[in-house]
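A reminder from the course coordinator: this example appears on the midterm review sheet, so study it carefully.

Given structure:
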């Protein structure tokens, strides 16, 4: 209670089953795929049977809008109509949804099989898009529930008798529990698919008026379960938390596998092409928190260099984590480092009971995991640094992960994407051979637990596509060894990971794992990584040093992918002479990164200050010398352009005079001056003038000018 008000904090679901049904209908499917739907119903049945058997309760309002998905698991909601059976039956006073209600509820009583009846209707509706009872009003529905046999023809033939039994008018003729109903459907298999009816009764745009849902559940498109969606991964707008349906039940990659169940990329490896450029197709995968940070730093560096990731369609980024909060954080932040929802993938852990019960197609975890470790799974369902739980998350989400990897590899190996990047950036083609980078901290539970299985899974995919020697590169952070460390778990994780890495790098050692009983075991006798790059991981309390290491990793990857450093380093490694890895074992690398360049920022700042200072000085100076020549050149240029030269001016004046006088101006001027030229001054007058000059100015000295007057007189 806060300020006198009752506040109820509830978990926010991702969406409900009706939202998921509408997504499938929008893609042209009749409903939710059978394997996926049975996975949802299995969890629903477990919850309903717990209520029924342990607490003698019936939910009485089971419908798609009340079955919510949280991290791809079912949450049964809306307990407003729950009834206590008080033995075998209870009274009913109304309030049920007629579309899904059991016939006995209309007689005013409740049996322990009512929820099973509703669950059977939900199954047929979400699988086929058609309900077993098609009444259009309450009266018709009540009569059909109580008297009319259900229409189960839209269902696959093996499912029809099972659903018909669950929809029996006599409660005792139904299955003993909801789990028995789901188990029967699981045994029935998928020998035929439900037809796509052009006149399906259920409108995918929304439930009928009798079952209209009033809640608004946040939804989101999921990464597709169909081959078409795998072909176009960039068109999906999947929320990182609205991950696809339960992968342990459905197999959206069925169309992407050959008859032996092995991986098969949609786009086989093209003939190898090498050039003198920089670009090549690449997939960069970050595991765990620090792996995500490295991918974000790489994206930031590429954003600074290229301006936009859209110019690099051949380069794909993907982060994988078990922590939903870390996934959410990766999609926030600054523009350059913020990952899109298509760049992230959540692989959550489940409750311990999920791993202990029989699971269709999944190998028993007891074959490799000490089962008591399951009870170390916290309520937050994250690894908390336990590497065994990291591998458990990978195995449990194997189908989901391989689906995304298939789509990402298919996208980055698209020749159109590579050609587009070459033309947009002008960096040229280095090779069309794809390279995969795996970034992780081997001190963490997710990175240490997943890195090896992920590497061999990627190698299997690339080999099936035709890459005989897959280029998978690992970049790993290792904690420093300190005998006084209070936390030894990170050191233990790193030590175990390095021992595994060293073991599988030996000649004659074969990696073998089976993630699904319906598929052949994955076997590989080669090392998991073509190159392993190791960097020191500072103490977790030293955030500044950790940030510097993350920046160094991002800078290295950006230069390896999009700068001349990359091909130069490849050429240098290719020139190393030595024995093959079978004879000498693998080399492990590390690096330091130092940038040798002029202090560009300081130089440009100093130059700008000097230029501005000099400009202001010239504006305020009265000395014209610095600009004299420039002004002279400008004046001469303008003088020529405006035709102000002497000859041109005289010609123009002469022409204007001729037009004004009507005759040659020279003749006119000559006729005016001629009378004056002919008049000669009288000698007497000239002598008088000279005498007056002498009186005024005095007699000139004898400097050779004394004869001037005489000459003038003579003249």
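Designed residues:
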């Amino acid at each position: 209670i806060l300020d006198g008000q009752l506040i109820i904090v509830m978990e926010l679901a991702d969406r409900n089953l009706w939202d998921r049904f509408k997504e499938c209908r929008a893609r042209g499917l009749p409903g939710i795929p059978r394997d996926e739907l049975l996975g949802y119903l299995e969890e629903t049945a477990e919850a309903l049977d717990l209520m029924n058997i342990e607490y003698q309760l019936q939910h009485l309002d089971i419908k798609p809008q009340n079955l919510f998905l949280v991290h791809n698991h079912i949450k049964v909601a809306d307990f407003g109509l729950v009834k206590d059976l008080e033995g075998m039956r209870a009274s009913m006073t109304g309030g049920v949804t007629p579309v899904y209600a059991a016939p006995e509820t209309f007689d005013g009583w409740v049996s322990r099989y009512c929820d099973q009846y509703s669950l059977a209707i939900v199954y047929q509706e979400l699988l086929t898009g058609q309900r077993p009872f098609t009444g259009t009003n309450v009266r018709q529905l009540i009569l059909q529930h109580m008297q009319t046999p259900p229409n189960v023809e839209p269902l696959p033939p093996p499912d029809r008798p099972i659903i018909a039994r669950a929809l029996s008018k006599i409660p005792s003729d139904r299955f003993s529990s909801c789990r028995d109903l789901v188990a029967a459907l699981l045994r029935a298999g998928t020998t035929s698919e439900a037809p796509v009816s052009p006149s399906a009764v259920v409108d995918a745009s929304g439930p009928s008026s009798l079952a209209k849902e009033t809640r608004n559940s946040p939804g989101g498109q999921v990464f597709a379960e169909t081959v078409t969606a795998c072909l176009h991964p960039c068109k999906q707008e999947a929320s990182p938390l609205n991950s696809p349906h339960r992968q342990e039940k459905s197999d959206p990659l069925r169309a992407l596998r050959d008859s032996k169940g092995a991986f098969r990329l949609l786009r086989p490896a093209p003939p190898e092409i090498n050039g003198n450029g920089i670009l090549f197709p690449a997939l960069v995968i970050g595991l765990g928190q620090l792996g995500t940070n490295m991918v974000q730093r790489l994206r930031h560096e590429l954003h600074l260099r290229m301006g936009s990731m859209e110019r690099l369609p051949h380069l794909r980024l993907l982060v994988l984590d078990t922590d939903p909060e870390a996934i959410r954080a990766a999609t926030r932040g600054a523009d350059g480092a913020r990952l899109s929802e298509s760049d992230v993938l959540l692989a959550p852990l489940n409750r311990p009971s999920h791993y202990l019960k029989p699971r269709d197609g999944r190998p028993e975890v007891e074959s490799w995991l000490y089962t008591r470790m399951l009870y170390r799974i916290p309520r937050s369902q994250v690894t908390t640094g336990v590497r065994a739980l990291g591998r458990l998350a990978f195995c449990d989400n194997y189908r989901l992960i391989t689906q995304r990897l298939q789509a990402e590899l298919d996208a980055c190996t698209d020749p159109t994407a590579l050609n587009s990047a070459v033309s947009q950036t002008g960096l040229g083609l280095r090779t069309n051979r794809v390279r995969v980078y795996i970034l992780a901290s081997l001190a963490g539970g997710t990175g240490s637990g997943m890195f090896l299985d992920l590497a061999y899974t990627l190698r299997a995919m690339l080999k099936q596509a035709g890459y005989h020697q897959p280029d998978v590169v690992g970049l790993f952070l290792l904690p420093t060894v300190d005998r006084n460390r209070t936390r030894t778990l990170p050191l233990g994780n790193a030590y175990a990971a390095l021992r595994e890495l060293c073991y599988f790098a030996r000649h004659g050692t074969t990696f073998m794992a089976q993630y699904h009983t319906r598929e052949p075991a994955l076997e590989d006798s080669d090392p998991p990584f073509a190159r392993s790059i190791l960097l020191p991981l500072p103490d977790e309390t030293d955030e500044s040093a950790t940030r510097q290491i993350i920046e160094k990793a991002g800078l290295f990857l950006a230069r390896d992918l999009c700068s001349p450093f990359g091909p130069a380093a490849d050429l240098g490694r290719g020139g190393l002479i030595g024995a093959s890895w079978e004879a000498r074992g693998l080399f492990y690398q590390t690096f330091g990164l130092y940038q040798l360049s002029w202090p560009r920022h300081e130089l440009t700042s100093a130059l700008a200050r000097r230029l501005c200072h000099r400009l202001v000085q010239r504006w305020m100076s009265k000395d014209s010398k610095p600009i004299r020549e420039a002004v002279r050149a400008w004046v001469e240029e303008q003088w020529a352009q405006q035709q102000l030269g002497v000859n041109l001016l005289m010609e123009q004046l002469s022409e204007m005079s001729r037009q004004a006088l009507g005759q040659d101006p020279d003749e006119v001027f000559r006729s005016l001056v001629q009378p004056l030229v002919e008049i000669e001054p009288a000698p007497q007058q000239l002598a008088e003038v000279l005498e007056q000059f002498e009186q005024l100015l005095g007699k000139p000295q004898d400097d050779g000018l004394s004869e001037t007057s005489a000459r003038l007189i003579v003249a």
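Residues 87-93, 191-262 have pLDDT under 50 and may be disordered. The domain at 15-194 is CATH 1.10.510.10 (Transferase(Phosphotransferase); domain 1).
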